[in-house]
Amino acid sequence: MNNIPGKILFDRHEIDRRVNELAEEIGHDYTGKDMVVVGILKVAFMFFADLIRRLPNQPAIDFARLASYGSDSTGSGSVEIRKDIEISIEGRDVLIIEDIIDTGITVNAFIEQLKKRRPRSLRVCTLLDKRERREVELPVDYAGFIIDGGFVVGYGLDYDEKYRCLPDIYILDEERLSGGGL
Ligand code: IMP
Ligand code: MG
């Protein structure tokens, strides 16, 4: 079937269970804190919505949109903040929510920007962690699943803006990758 991008890696039930566990752990860690949850658009919108509605903390929320250029294999790609967060994070406990961290360059550049605004703490939560592909030192505080190679889509993740709305996570079939380089 043409709408199925490949083999399922994590189905909606596995995702659901893991998001529950993460919410429990995070909820516990942030008890009594002035928490701000920052979602990275567009990718994290689905995971973000599922996670925050299970947090007992009633955090403030905001979004950022990042664009990275030339982040091929050199580790020196530049990252532009296309849409910045709008609320103040000074003295507050900030948790960044990403769907997937690959080289780490994008989130790392964003963290450097946020640090200048003097949050009390700054942590990172990602649903998927391609840890072995990391090119910068980036501590991930909460990771849903650690995965190795392959390009994944669904549950917010896209390939060329496709497949974001699928409720499960798939490994994209090789023949759907055009032009190589992924
Ligand atoms: P990084 O700067 O290399 O960590 O890039 C992370 C960004 O690349 C993510 O926010 C995604 O937008 C994108 N990305 C990396 N790997 C994948 C994947 O397997 N599927 C979909 N998007 C991905
Ligand atoms: Mg993308």
Report the oligomer.
single chain
Q: What percentage of the residues does DSSP assign to strands (E)? A: 25-35%
Distance between the termini: 23 Å
Shape: globular
Number of helical segments?
A: 3
Give the ordered list of helices and strands.
EHEHEEEHEEEE
Under the CATH scheme, which architecture would be assigned?
3-Layer(aba) Sandwich
Mean of residue pLDDT values: 91
Highlighted features:
alpha/beta; 182 residues; Rossmann fold; 3-stranded antiparallel beta sheet; globular; binds magnesium ion; 6-stranded mixed beta sheet; binds inosinic acid; 3 helices
Please provide a written account of the structure.
There is one protein chain. The protein has 182 residues and is of the alpha/beta class. It has one domain (10-150): 3-Layer(aba) Sandwich (Rossmann fold), CATH 3.40.50. It contains three helices and nine strands; from the N terminus they run E-H-E-H-E-E-E-H-E-E-E-E. It has helices at residues 12-29, 45-52, 105-115; strands spanning 6-10, 35-41, 60-69, 78-83, 93-101, 121-129, 142-146, 152-153, 169-172. The strands form two sheets. It has a six-stranded mixed β-sheet, sandwiched between helices. The protein has a three-stranded antiparallel β-sheet with strand order 1-9-8. Strand 3 and strand 4 form a beta hairpin. Helix 1 packs across helix 2 (45-52). The longest helix is centred in the N-terminal third of the chain and has 18 residues, at 12-29. It is globular, with a radius of gyration of 16 Å. The two termini are 23 Å apart. Mean pLDDT is 91; it is low at 71-75. Bound molecules: inosinic acid (IMP) and magnesium ion. Inosinic acid binds at residues 43, 68, 71, 98, 100-106, 151-153, 157.
